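Internal tracking record. Fields below are filled automatically when a chain is submitted to the structure queue. Please do not edit lines marked as system-generated. If the sequence contains nonstandard residues, flag them in the REMARKS field before resubmitting.
Queue: standard
Priority: normal
Entity type: single polypeptide chain
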Amino acid sequence: MALMNYPKKVVLGDITVRDGFQHEEKFIPTEAKIWLAEQLLLAGFKRIEVTNYGNPKGMPQFKDADEVMKRLRTSKKVGHLLKDAEITVITIREKAVDRAIISKKEGFGPDRILFMVSTSEAHHKVNSGLSLAEYWKMCEAYIPKAHEAGIKVCGTVSTIWGCPIAGPTELKSAVEFTKRWLDIGADDIEHADHDGSAPPNKVYEYYSMILDEIPDKSKHIAHFHTTRGWGLANVLAALQAGITQFESTIGAIGGQPANFVDGVPVAGTGKYYYSDPSITGLVSTEDMVVMMDEMGIDTGINVDKILEIGMMTEKIVGRRLRSECAHTGRIPKELTGRK
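SYSTEM-GENERATED OUTPUT FOLLOWS
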């Protein structure tokens, strides 16, 4: 009998509190962010992303970054879980890294920070304000500083399957960028489809290339947006290629930082590059966890609790989100007794 080949155990990270909320055009209350971070940890996640240490003038969604981190670190609900958890903060530029290092020394900082490069120069310039050459130089200087402070570093590679600004890109460029990250000291790599450009066949091709070149699966994290509805198909393609680490958001929310928050235009990262900025976001955590559970993959996540979190997150943001399983539920595991 022919069976599909894929890993039987994976590591999942949820990044709703940062990536999910950054595209929201209303400020999400600090208490709601902390509640969600706690609930994700209680549901079994050991990796979560919770804020951005960039300038809050451009991204006011994260004006409460320090408060979120301090209150999470002192939470009575999840304090016993934090020693085994990895809390990540986004640090695109120098001041953000400095802030992460200071907060770490003060006892509430992140376990891991994230830098980001795009293989497309145009996309990278919009995201970081620097050329690729300037950004690599910055990272070469700051990765050792982060490590010295006891902080892990993730290097993101974006626009792997295409750029929403400049157009097509080459997969081999992303492989070379991955190697460069590891050469300068990054601990792991987030391979990101930030706008939903990746078709499943190219996802399989790329991750096969990556694992041929760098076979240590602990170094690679798949990050898919489902802008065009291909998110779970891409997860499956990555699984078949051998990838074992994935990121997602509750309700498939997220995307480019909002340029309009609570009725006020803000910088964000500039003009939205989506055809429809209301249809963005990552793979749905709920749907991915349920799918993997049905496939017999060990995620370590409490599936029923994730579905409950999904419904509550809809109340937090104030609208129906893009998870199907949050509404349809799981497939029954036993006979229902109904006739």
